[in-house]
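Re: beginner question about structure tokens

> Can someone show what the tokenized structure looks like for a real chain? I only ever see the sequence side.

Sure, here's an example I had lying around. Input first:
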Amino acid sequence: MSDSHRLSIRFVIVSCFLCLYVFMPQITNVMLAWGNITRMVENITAANYSLLALCKLISTWYHGKTLRGVMAMVMTDWLTSKNDGERNTMLNIARRGRTLSLRCYGVAGFGCMFFLFMNFLKFRRSMHQPQRILVYHFSYLYNINKSPNYEITFFIQILCGLYTALVNSSIDSFVSIILLHICAQLINLRTALRNVVDELAKGSISSSEFKKELGAITMRHINLIR
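And the corresponding structure tokens:
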């Protein structure tokens, strides 16, 4: 089995788990809370977060080849930087991207710890009760009040909730880093254009060389904004 087929199978499995154990229960809870504005807002907020993660996961999988090409372009840019000025610009922007990613993962980590703590308390309170409470209430086709059905379902929902946070934070960080890298390349193009114009004004290069450099800058700009 090829790597692409394995990735597709993993994607289908993860998507099904997220739909069955996170998104569908949240949407059901929105319908059940119809008329209670406070509960509806809470459930809609949670449903939007999980739906956003699911959409990001689908988009990333669907555009996988394009994203791999973008990552290859980023590596090529780092390996083929022409001078120290361009590299310093890329380093400064990359540091900002790293800081942004660390903050994003920090917020996600804090949220995950709070999520685990609150649901651990819920799990302890429900262990010896006849009517047990899940992370996301939903009427499954099996009896969730029996062991080990309840424990398995509860921890699957916990893992899916954590995976939702991981998907959102990871894809947001990845997209942010890519956008910042493109910004760095545009800054380098602006600097290169200024240098070429200055050299032409000083007579350091001929008009044919200027047109050649300008054409290369234009093509690079077109590739970046695609």
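Each token stands for a local structural state, so reading them left to right follows the chain. The chain has six helices and no strands.
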